[in-house]
Amino acid sequence: MPITAVHARQIYDSRGNPTVEVDLTTEKGMFRAAVPSGASTGIHEALELRDKDKAVHHGKGVLKAVANVNEIIGPAIVEKAFCPTQQAEIDKFMLGLDGTENKSKLGANAILGVSLAVAKAGAAHKGMPLYKYIAELAGVSKVVLPVPAMNVINGGSHAGNKLAMQEFMVLPVGASSFKEAMRMGSEVYHHLKGEIKKRYGLDATAVGDEGGFAPNIQDNKEGLDLLNTAIALAGYTGKVSIGMDIASSEFFKADVKKYDLDFKNPNSDKNLWKSGDEMAELYLSFIKSYPIVSIEDAFEQDDWENWQKLMKRTDIQLVGDDLTVTNPKRIKMAIEKKACNCLLLKVCSVANL
Predict the structure, then answer these.
(1) CA dihedral sign of residues 218, 224, 227, 229
(2) Are 233 and 173 in contact (CB under 8 A)?
(3) For residue 318, which of 337, 345, 291, 299 has the smallest C-alpha distance?
């Protein structure tokens, strides 16, 4: 049952920015996928092709990527009469059509939209739920639901407050089921809202880009204290842990190799910028004082030395996102250098499933 048609269009994502949506047709029907996009992205990620016409959508239009699907990728796939269950072959074929290291010719967003639509069609053709089909493609026989990490305080590029660190998350590690974990997370979230109101007033519970609260605080430790209090108020001390996404590449000053925790202030005091060693000490103090089990992007995406140093000093989950960008070459490098012990998997960083 070959793929008979591929069509793309421009739609809007949850941030109100244009993105690519792809419809793929087979005898089984039509299968649709939309491409996700991040607010903070690593420099090593595959290139998201934008139109760069500042007069339209602030340059973020994706009509070029849409045209690449409709005029190049789609016709080529239909001509080859690929079956949608040929996921690896189709992905490899599209990467060959692009021919660049960072997917800059056709655009990661063009390639990924088709790749995700192919996966949905492939699952339907095999009569399987999408999650089981993806597990089969990955060679995973036993599927286990993860502990959800709920982003409940937003900072960094996700919020208009003074917080430098991007995400403060709660992880219900003591839950006996996913259902219970969601209930625990929800209850902590609402206790957090009440605590923010109590400390900062009714106008402090606005939310950021990803739905977490964005109180206008600057001290990252204050954010952790809010979470710890909310967890205790919910009665889940010892059952709910904390995770953080620092997104430190967003406030790294490459010219002096320092980190500016007041980067949203154009007049931030350079004397307060922190070295990699000082950032490590800050993280270790957090880990000592709070139930932190996971820290993501603790250092800039090419600050390998400081990643390695921190790995030797803690056994919590150190997650590479901007560091590894779901790229096999970067992941191999991180393993060889022992820079992190976990990675974030994001298809939009690498352009295909």
Answers:
(1) negative
(2) no
(3) 299
197, 253, 309, 346: the catalytic one is: 346
Contact call for residues 332 and 46 (beta carbons, < 8 A): no
Q: Is 21 a catalytic residue?
A: no
Beta strands in 13-103 (DSSP E): 18-26, 29-34
- The per-residue pLDDT for range 245-280, each reduced to its tens digit, is 999 999 999 999 999 999 999 999 999 999 999 999
Q: Quick one: 37 exposed, middle or buried, by C-beta within 10 A (0-12, 13-18, 19+)?
A: buried
What pLDDT is attached to residue 349? 77
Tell me what the mean pLDDT of segment 232-248 comes to.
Answer: 98
Of 105, 132, 210, 337, the catalytic one is 210
Q: Please give the CATH superfamily to which domain 5-136 belongs.
A: Enolase-like, N-terminal domain (3.30.390.10)
Nearest CA to 316 out of 283, 336, 292 is that of 292
pTM of the predicted model as reported, rounded to 2 decimal places: 0.91
Query: Domain ranges in the chain?
Result: 5-136, 150-350
Which among 1, 178, 206, 159 is positioned nearest to 83, based on CA atoms? Answer: 1
Give CA–CA dist 258/222, Å, rounded: 22
Cβ neighbors of 173 (< 8 A, separation 6 or more) are 147, 239, 240, 241, 293
Instruction: Using the predicted structure, report yes or no on whether residue 350 has a pLDDT greater than 90.
Output: no
In percent, the amount of the chain with pLDDT more than 90 equals 90
89 labelled catalytic? no
Q: Give the Å distances, CA to CA, from 196 to 4, 53, 103, 156.
A: 54, 41, 43, 18
Q: Enter the tokens of residue 132.
A: 């089981």
Which superfamily is assigned to 150-350 in CATH? Answer: Enolase-like C-terminal domain (3.20.20.120)
In three-state secondary structure terms, 260 is: coil
Q: How far apart are CA 170 and CA 100, in angstroms?
A: 39
